[in-house]
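Comment thread on ticket #2218

A.B. wrote:
> Attaching the input chain for the structure job we discussed in standup.
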Amino acid sequence: MTTSHHHQSVMFDESIDALNLTTDGIYIDATFGRGGHSQGILARLGDQAQLIAFDQDISAIEYAKKSFNDPRLTLIHSPFAQMHTVISEMGLSGKIDGILMDLGVSSPQLDNADRGFSFMAEGPLDMRMNQTAGLSAAQWLAQAGEEEIANVIYQFGDEKKSRHIASRIKKFQLEQPLETTLQLANIVSEVVRGQKKKHPATRTFQAIRIFINQELKQLSDTLEHSKEILSHQGRLSIISFHSIEDRIVKRFIQKNSRQKSLPKGLPIFDQAIQKMPFKDLGKQFASKDEVGHNKRSRSAILRVAEKN
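C.D. wrote:
> Ran it. Output below, let me know if you need it in another format.
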């Protein structure tokens, strides 16, 4: 088993700059991971500032407790979808000056074969961000029907051969339990032809991981709750790594920032009626230099919005 705590935070400066930090503000790192972005944020904050960091992965929280000794940092072992509840209980609704979200799987999670995220190393087929709750990928695949598996792989992975993959999975399970990452990767590789820069099982693993962790629902819910959580001129700074996540972020920002056209012939409405919740501050991609030394950044998109 290979375990690593090394993790390069993608678009490190760009995502933190996007928060437009004030020295005494209150900020949220919704995806603590190994604390790269949190460390960068704390370095720019004053003594009276506060950073609240969420992570549903208990190993990330344990790492933070050992590695961070900063009274300005509050650690929350919870999925970020519970952010609105936690912030409300802390009496901070409408007082948060910025939320940073670095979506996807962290390098330590991928590097640890026991977590079951990687199709490159043998390990138990788990894929849970929070290993203390819910079904593992192996447990779900054992009880789900062929059609359900196919739908998940297609919907969350854009995998065109989802039905063939689901059929192969069920045939494999007639002979023996499907319990390891390489078993699944090999099944998919028999169906999907590999591409130059992409393993055949990439889309399938992505889809099952997203489904097991309910990542898209958590993202959508959190974006909606950000309207209540953020203060006036509070910022959203969100890094996504594949089109499905980015589409959700993009549509949320567009829906909540575009002025609606007024019906013709009606008197001009009060400006307050037309005011939208957010201002779209655009998107950025990783620099060529970063892409050159950190391949994870190739597909990264940073989108930024400001609360009106």
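A.B. wrote:
> Thanks. Noting for the ticket: DSSP finds 14 helices and seven strands in the chain.
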